[in-house]
Structure formats: structure tokens, C-alpha cells
Amino acid sequence: MNKIIILVLAFVLIFTQSENNEEDGVFILTDKNFEEKVNEFGVTLVKFYAPWCGHCKKLAPEYSAAAKELKQLDPPVIISQVDCTVEKELAQKYEIQGFPTLKLFKNGKVIAYEGGRSKDDIVKFMKKHTGPVAVELNSDNY
């Protein structure tokens, strides 16, 4: 009986570690999953960062708060990050010159993010790029 419990616990531990693709609400992109996930998401804001960077550390809680708010939308909006100290090829491919660099990946296009670094700025930007294509007119908005 103990062997079965240990085996089940080991399986659960291995499975949860391999599926841990988020950090504080932000999806973690790697060289292995980047193309697949960016295409799957359709639209995602990617933060290219280095863990030692002071500006990155300052942005982290705002970015995380934005990620959590955006996930509550219907449909959910996912924002992502790439650790450039680990994923050097991605940093080179997307010409990352400084940290943090934010880029919007939208339907195969890459757009530099030059907006504010607060949660509200990020959420507003993402809503603008993921909102409905058309707005239903009614007596309140026409």
C-alpha cells in the first residue's frame, strides 16, 4: 500500500512540475514552447527580462497584477514572459537590447510596446488589442 501511495505522489509531483508554465499569473515562454504558445494565444504581450535587472524587478508586480486581471476577462487574455538569461536565442531572435522589453505578438505580427508600466496601462493596452472588432450600437452609446 505504501508503495502505491509513493508512486502516486511521485507521479503527481513530476506531472505538476512539468506543467508549471506560470509564475505569479504570467505564462512562462521558453524556446521549446514559444512559437506554439504565441500562436495558440493569438494575442499576447511578452515581457523579455533578466532576473537581476532592477527595472524588471520594479515592473514584476504590476505585470503580474495585469496578468491576473486579464485572465478574468471573457475570453481570458494571457500575458507572458521570457527570461533572457536562460532563453538567449529568443532574446537574439527578437533583438532584445535592454530589459525589460515588452512586445505585443498579435496574429503573426510583432509590435513594440511603448506604453506605461503600471497595471492599468498594461490592461488598457491589452483590452484595446483584444477587444471586440465591432460594437453593438444601442441607445446608450449611439
Automatic annotation (TrEMBL):
NCBIfam families: pdi_dom. The keyword Signal applies. GO terms for biological process: protein folding; response to endoplasmic reticulum stress. Pfam families: Thioredoxin. InterPro entries: PDI_thioredoxin-like_dom (IPR005788), Thioredoxin-like_sf (IPR036249), Thioredoxin_CS (IPR017937), Thioredoxin_domain (IPR013766). This is Thioredoxin. Residues 6-131 form the Thioredoxin domain. Residues 1-18 form the signal peptide. Belongs to the protein disulfide isomerase family. One of its GO terms (molecular function) is protein disulfide isomerase activity. It comes from the Eukaryota. Keywords: Disulfide bond, Isomerase, Redox-active center, Repeat, Signal. PROSITE patterns: THIOREDOXIN_1, THIOREDOXIN_2. CDD domains: PDI_a_family. GO terms for cellular component: endoplasmic reticulum. The keyword NAD does not apply.
